[in-house]
Design brief:
twelve-stranded antiparallel sheet, about 35% helix, 18 helices, about 475 residues, alpha+beta, transmembrane, two-stranded antiparallel ribbon
Length: about 475
């Protein structure tokens, strides 16, 4: 126990600024691609914990990732001038559409003449102009039932996932990796996830691709400044045997599997004198969980009937609910983030307290970022929204580099801040290429705690005589010792 206590103390004192660094590391891993850039905009105080070299980098990143989707919709709908010139051309378009539908009706007998149906393209284009109200009911039908299981809050009616993290978690995040797969964002998101501490600890050298092999990730923490307090649950399509074999590539076969209430369980890392992490790995069909041992009872016991985390009748555990957490994401939603009781310093405004933060990133083609900020008082929300335009101007004018100033201006000009009682909703819409560029910058400043360099090294690759040459080759391609040596 004393050694573990010393290890924890070492985690606190090894680098004076690591507590804030680890907070940023967790936030980056939770928000992943785009979402974390919005949180960076809300937490610029973190730059004070870094050297000048880091401050210059973060200044260019903390102010990236905002725009306004509603304004685009309003511009598309702004056809209020059409009814004025319509009285004269009204008789003209009326006879034109009438003969067009008549010929296909009169000549439906020949099958090849069914092609004139696509001719009413103007009608189809009219429906395309309203794509979001029409596909929503179609897309929502298969996902509406599971999404109804989750409570919603705030003016944006975002799903509330904060109650599904064990240990009174203050940060929770859900990422739908399957919706990033095969998109322009896949490469850069994969690169960022492989830099995240939990990937380096558990999955380095396993040949598990965080986007290609994992369908979703749910993260939670009550103490995000400590790596060892992060809870992680991933959904995948591998068998338990395949997952166990892949995990064994990280530290070898020395970590034996046992059972906890019928659930396969294993230590995260082997015992060593340099780095300690008490967390365990649990396996359920299609899901792997990384958790602290004190959360095992909370995860596996039957939930009370009135529990907000209960998603089914009969016996239901928190693990059962977490297995369905990916359904909280609405169609096209890429990420959800919830946080509680956050106090940050905002340049020009001073310290501000947020009772809650709910964030979503949706639409991989045109990522739309939406954040509901909950303030203690309505006057606080109104003051923040009123100060938002001036805050953006100061962020832009504060950049001395011309290129950086123009880039930041391009992102911040699309930010909108709207107050609604005790809430402020911040929204922004960007292109996939713009988000990809932001993530490229973010990958260069993902904190890399030096303590991870003390992790045990992966075992040597199997010899050709012990395995098939083809298998040995694939293992060699999947290894990446450069990450663990950082």
């Amino acid at each position: 126990m004393s050694e573990e206590h010393d290890q924890d103390e070492g985690m606190r004192t090894e680098a004076p600024a690591t507590r804030r660094v680890q907070v940023v590391s967790w936030v980056l891993s939770a928000l992943l691609h785009g979402a974390f850039m919005s949180v960076a905009f809300l937490t610029p105080h973190t730059e004070s914990e870094f050297d000048v070299e880091w401050m210059t980098e973060f200044e260019s990143l903390e102010r990236i990732g905002h725009g306004d989707f509603k304004e685009i919709v309003i511009e598309e709908r702004g056809v209020g001038e059409e009814p004025e010139p319509e009285p004269e051309p009204e008789p003209e378009p009326e006879p034109e559409p009438e003969p067009e539908p008549e010929p296909p009706k009169e000549e439906p007998r020949p099958k090849p003449k069914s092609k004139p149906k696509p001719k009413p393209e103007p009608e189809e284009l009219a429906s395309v102009a309203e794509p979001k109200p029409q596909p929503q009911p179609e897309d929502s039908e298969p996902t509406q039932k599971p999404s109804e299981k989750f409570k919603r809050s705030g003016p944006s009616d975002l799903p509330d996932i904060k109650g599904y993290g064990p240990g009174n978690a203050v940060y929770t995040a859900l990422v739908r990796n399957d919706r990033i797969r095969g998109t322009p964002l896949q490469e850069v998101v994969t690169h960022i996830l492989k830099l995240v501490p939990d990937y380096r600890i558990a999955l380095d050298n396993t040949d598990i691709d965080p986007v290609q092999d994992l369908d979703s990730m749910f993260m939670a923490s009550a103490r995000p400044q400590y790596i060892q307090h992060t809870f992680l649950a991933v959904r995948h399509r591998m068998s338990d045997k395949d997952m166990q074999e892949r995990l064994a590539r990280r530290f070898g076969d020395g970590l034996a599997w046992s059972e906890y209430n019928g659930i396969p369980i294993r230590d995260l890392i082997p015992e060593n004198e340099h780095y300690q992490d008490p967390r365990k790995i649990l396996l359920r069909p299609g899901m792997a969980v990384l958790t602290r041992p004190e959360f095992l009872g909370e995860l596996t016991r039957n939930l009370p009937k009135d529990s907000d985390a209960r998603l089914s009748e009969g016996r239901a555990t928190l693990l059962d609910s977490i297995a369905q957490i990916e359904d909280a994401a609405d169609p096209k939603t890429l990420a959800l983030v919830s946080a509680m009781d956050i106090r940050v310093f905002i340049p020009g405004l001073g310290p501000r307290t947020f009772e809650g933060i709910a964030l979503s990133v949706a639409d991989v083609n045109n990522p739309h970022i939406k954040i509901d900020l909950k303030f203690p008082k309505e006057t606080d929300a109104t003051g923040f929204a009123d100060a938002c335009p001036d805050l953006k101007r100061r962020m832009i004018s504060g950049q001395k580099n011309f290129m950086v100033r123009n880039m930041i201006s391009n992102y911040l000009e699309r930010v909108t801040c709207v107050a609604n009682e005790t809430y402020v909703t911040v929204e922004a819409t960007y292109t996939a290429e713009e988000i990809r560029s932001v993530l490229g910058f973010a990958s260069m400043v993902v904190p890399q705690p030096m303590v991870l360099s003390k992790l045990p090294k992966p075992p040597p690759l199997p010899a050709a005589a012990e395995s098939d040459p083809a298998d040995a080759g694939s293992d060699d391609l999947g290894s990446d010792e450069t990450i663990t040596s950082e």
